[in-house]
Amino acid sequence: MVGEILRGYAERGVFRGFSRGESRNGKAAFRMIWHRDRPFALTVDTRRGAIRCPLVLPQLPAGSAMYRELRAFLKAYQSADRPDHRRIDNRKARVTCANRGGDVSLTMNISDADYEYGIRKFIHLIQEIYLVFLSEHFEYQVEAFGLDPDHP
Amino acid sequence: MKNENDDPGTSRRDLLAAGAIAAAMLASKPLCADVPIPSIAIPKEIPANLSEAAKPGSFEGRGMSGAEIFAKLCVEEELAAMFCCPGNYTVINAMAAAGVPAYGGRTEGAMCAAADGFSRVTGEATACSGTEGPGFTHMIMNIAAAHAARTPLLVLASNMQISGDDREAFIQTGYQQPTTTGMKKYGKRLIAPDRVWEYGAYAFRNMKTGVPGPVHLDFPGEVARARFTDPAKLKDYYSKDKYRSESRAHPAPADVKKAVDLIAKAERPLIVAGQGVFQRKSWDLLMEIAEKNDIAVSATGPMKGHFPDGHRLSINQSPDALMSADLVLFVGQYCMPSPGEYTFNPDIKAIRVHPVPEDLGRNWPLELGIVSDERTFLTALNDALPRRKRDTWANEIAAARQKYEKTILDQYELGVKYSKDTNHLHPSVIAKEVHDFFYKGKIDPKQTVMGMGGWTIGNFMGRWVRAYRPGQAISCAYQYGAIGPDVAMTIGAGAAVQRGIGPQAAYKGAPVCCISSDAGIAYSLFELDTAQKYKIPIIAVIYNNNSWGMWPQAVGSARSMHMYLFQENLRYDKMAEGLGARGEYVHTQQELKDALARSYTAASKESASTLINCQALKEFTSARDYPPGNFMNPEPGGGAFQH
Q1: Which of B339, B481, B552 sits opposite A139 (nearest CB)?
Q2: ipTM for the complex?
Q3: Total number of domains in chain A
Q4: Same-domain pairing of B60 and B169
Q5: pLDDT in tens, B264-314
Q6: What dihedral angle (degrees, nearest 10) is formed by the CA atoms of B358, B262, B467, B364?
Q7: Chain A contacts in chain B segment 234-263 (CB below 8 A)
Q8: Same domain, residue pair B90 and B210
Q9: Which end of chain A is more exposed for a tag (fewer CB within 10 A), N or C?
Q10: CATH number at residue B580
Q11: In chain B, what residues touch A35 (CB-CB under 8 Å)?
């Protein structure tokens, strides 16, 4: 089901180059070309009830103000203050981020095996990180993605 | 060889004394001649010439030249204005004589931008012209900008002769039509004099039907100067109701029903109202539909205001709500983004309405594509759509607006601090002051047309510019990203305001304002002479950060930074004074407030233009030195310039 949902996004032009890797022991891997024409990997581990993207943002030091802002952004994204269609309901899933040498990963732990909810919310979150959160961090995008300011 | 400084007999005191003598000599003998300098003045011929009655050509007597026949067609088609530099003399003289409102300026490129600006705030077809080779090629950047903006712009340029083709005869030889490949909707070199009317009809068919765009006609001398005493000698010499049609594509009823069904299923629908809505003057219909069904609207395109900022359903200043929309209805969105370029969630459904089928499905996969003229579609939708309240959606938009206003106010407060700390103007302060002056003070907030360009200042102003009525703001850099046409484009818009054309009628004669940069002003500063000459009052607010806005690209690259920097503290205000306009130099917030007030008084009372040179620092762009530095405005939205 997760694969079909992701394929649906690919067919709607959300991302391209979508491929599905091997599925084994309840673990499935997916790849796609998405924001900034960068490859994204996703893994869905039904035994652990987790969806993970090992590299959402590169070159973001753990001690930086921007990383602190990202953590606050993620917290706000899971706040009950936001409308349902714009948040992750913590009764159903929780998202955490980790930083290894500046590479930021995201993990969603799903509480109720509702993977349709989980994968859609996970994709929405990454979309919002790139289209909303990063819009205020132009210089980071130039440095981290080699963004040409003439083609933002 | 002995250096004079090595002379043991020359003491420091002697050198100082010698320096003083030299200074005294310089003081007594200035480097420039001390002669009386006459005042800058508008020649008497100009007002006298402009007040002459039109004198169109006639088939009687000597007959009409090809240029006069073409001019006659332009008058019948109500070509709104022509902006040119001399060259292509036969044609521009015939156009002016026939009664086409004509403006002559300082560079062909800037005049092309001015024609584009006139069109962007009126929706009308306009023309630009220059001489065959250099004048025409000078226009190229702005023809391309007009093409990206789908402007109905008639590009005219010539006076060479077919007989000189391939001979490098005299000067200015060039092949025009290949040069505009990829930046026009239609183009033709006229080679048969008897087909001049026929190809004029081609031009207006292309500009006035379907998706507009630039049309490029070049007139060799054999065509422009040919003479006709009998209209029967002309091919396809029909009136415009025969050579083009006002008939428009209507949507299929089944498609309208599908659209209504999709809107009914949506909780948070959004109309992206592109320039087609403006071009087809459908803003009233758009308002009716939005209010009838509580549908959010983002007015997009090279012009703004066809849905008013400030309306409870306008989403242009509520960017955080964009991600909540679950259905987007693109109407008249000629320049289509791809998913990921607009701030939408990945599950949003899409309908697109477009006048020609070939473009449906390009870039953005659709749930429903509808071939229709924008106005006929909105009429049909308005008839079919039931009333519905969506209070939750409207409240979410209002909350997002409050959040956005707080964000930009916080940014402004930071800018005030940076400005005080450095005694230089931060771009957020410039943008907020311009906003407050034109939208929050004594001036009717709907009045002033604002042209907006530049990189850093364009981004900052994008957060503060407002359009409360159709054609009130133009994004000069729209899609093509040209840095530089801003002042000239806004002068063209100002000419439309002076004449009270279309949506500018209610504000006829009002001053216009342009926000641009020191990099941008280099391209069209001289058109302040044109503004003065024609009494088109413009207030040009120039963000002067001593550099190209892209200077951070040179950081860390050896021997590169010099290419990005200008001399510091350049006096563009003095250059404006030299061109007969007013100049103001400011580097504090209060100075800017005062300068805006003086400039507006001069503009409204004396039709005088002003350049306000706002001294800034390039480092304001840097997130390290002055966080948060630069940013990208969300698309779609008030500051959008890509699509």
Answers
A1: B552
A2: 0.96
A3: 1
A4: yes
A5: 999 999 999 999 999 999 999 999 999 999 999 999 999 999 999 999 999
A6: -40
A7: none
A8: yes
A9: N
A10: 3.40.50.970
A11: 340
